[in-house]
């Protein structure tokens, strides 16, 4: 039986100047622009036929604060599809509280890189299906990596970053993805800092390199500007494709994207 490919809208949530939760959209993780209310967008995408929904608190780790769980609860009340929540998750108590707030899965980046045992502990306590390891990848064209691919004729590796892409770690993304899978991660969420917000397409060398290294489902993220880009991500091996801007600004509907994919032989839930 062929598994359907998933189309997933994502909201990046931060606190506005009044301390209220708001959705923002940026380019290369910077120049954030107010986009809407998280609860209203969640309701919209649930009704539009999204396969899943992702809520990312984009400054929780950098600011050293917990994820805004009260907002997660409000979002969970509006969506009846799998909900993934990430941002500021550092230990199993954070995982438990996020799941209790209504999340079906938690997305962990900085916390897992700082203490990889968190993946093992989370998978053992709550099941691998709940543990999504998120990677904010950045292209590097030096000799510091472990796994190299050809990008426009140059040898490139991908570095894991933390705190919303603000700090490099020196850790090779492909090596880390394989370790995360071995430790029990149920899914890998691969973001590209270089492609983020550009609408020029996913970082296909990055997506392909991770998909080739693991058997765990991979979500391609960052750079989607049109349905064709999702098709390319699926052809590179991704199991799901995530997008924000094209849905937030109503350039395409989820139905239009799925119809495009279906016409080209990609198995999707219509």
UniProtKB/TrEMBL annotation:
User: Which Pfam families has this protein been placed in?
Assistant: His_biosynth
GO molecular function: any one?
Answer: imidazoleglycerol-phosphate synthase activity
An annotated GO cellular component: cytoplasm
Task: State the active site.
Answer: 12, 136
Q: Which UniProt keywords apply?
A: Amino-acid biosynthesis, Cytoplasm, Histidine biosynthesis, Lyase
According to its UniProt record, where is this protein located?
A: Cytoplasm
The record's annotation in InterPro entries points to: Aldolase_TIM (IPR013785), His_biosynth (IPR006062), HisF (IPR004651), IGPS_HisA/HisF (IPR050064), RibuloseP-bd_barrel (IPR011060)
Q: Which GO terms describe its biological process?
A: L-histidine biosynthetic process
- Signal peptide (from-to): none
* Documented EC number(s): 4.3.2.10
First-level EC class: lyase
Q: In which pathway does it act?
A: Amino-acid biosynthesis; L-histidine biosynthesis; L-histidine from 5-phospho-alpha-D-ribose 1-diphosphate: step 5/9
Q: What is its main location?
A: cytoplasm
Lineage top rank: taxon: Archaea
Which reactions are catalysed by this chain?
Answer: 5-[(5-phospho-1-deoxy-D-ribulos-1-ylimino)methylamino]-1-(5-phospho-beta-D-ribosyl)imidazole-4-carboxamide + L-glutamine = D-erythro-1-(imidazol-4-yl)glycerol 3-phosphate + 5-amino-1-(5-phospho-beta-D-ribosyl)imidazole-4-carboxamide + L-glutamate + H(+)
Q: Which family does it belong to?
A: Belongs to the HisA/HisF family.
Task of the protein: IGPS catalyzes the conversion of PRFAR and glutamine to IGP, AICAR and glutamate. The HisF subunit catalyzes the cyclization activity that produces IGP and AICAR from PRFAR using the ammonia provided by the HisH subunit.
Complex formation: Heterodimer of HisH and HisF.
Q: What is this protein called?
A: Imidazole glycerol phosphate synthase subunit HisF
Species whose genome carries this gene: Halarchaeum nitratireducens
């Amino acid at each position: 039986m062929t598994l359907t490919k998933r189309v997933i809208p994502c909201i990046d949530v931060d606190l506005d100047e009044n301390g209220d939760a708001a959705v923002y959209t940026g380019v290369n993780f910077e120049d954030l622009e107010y986009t809407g209310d998280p609860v209203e967008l969640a309701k919209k995408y649930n009704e539009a036929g999204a396969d899943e929904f992702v809520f990312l608190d984009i400054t929780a780790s950098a600011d050293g604060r917990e994820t805004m769980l009260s907002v997660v609860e409000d979002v969970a009340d509006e969506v009846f599809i799998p909900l993934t929540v990430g941002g500021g998750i550092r230990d199993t108590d954070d995982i438990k509280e996020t799941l209790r707030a209504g999340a079906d899965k938690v997305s962990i980046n900085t916390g897992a890189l700082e203490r990889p045992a968190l993946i093992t502990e989370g998978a053992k306590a709550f099941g691998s299906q709940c543990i999504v390891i998120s990677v904010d990848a950045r292209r590097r064209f030096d000799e510091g990596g472990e796994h190299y691919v050809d990008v426009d004729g140059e040898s490139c590796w991908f570095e894991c970053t933390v705190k919303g892409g603000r700090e490099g770690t020196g850790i090779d993304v492909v090596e880390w993805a394989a370790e995360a899978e071995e430790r029990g991660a149920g899914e890998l969420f691969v973001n590209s800092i270089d492609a983020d917000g550009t609408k020029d397409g996913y970082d296909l060398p990055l997506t392909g390199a991770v998909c080739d290294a693991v058997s765990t489902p991979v979500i391609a993220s960052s750079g989607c500007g049109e349905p064709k880009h999702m098709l390319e991500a699926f052809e590179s091996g991704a199991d799901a494709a995530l997008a924000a801007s094209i849905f937030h600004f109503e350039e395409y509907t989820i139905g239009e994207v799925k119809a495009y994919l279906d016409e080209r032989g990609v198995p999707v839930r219509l």
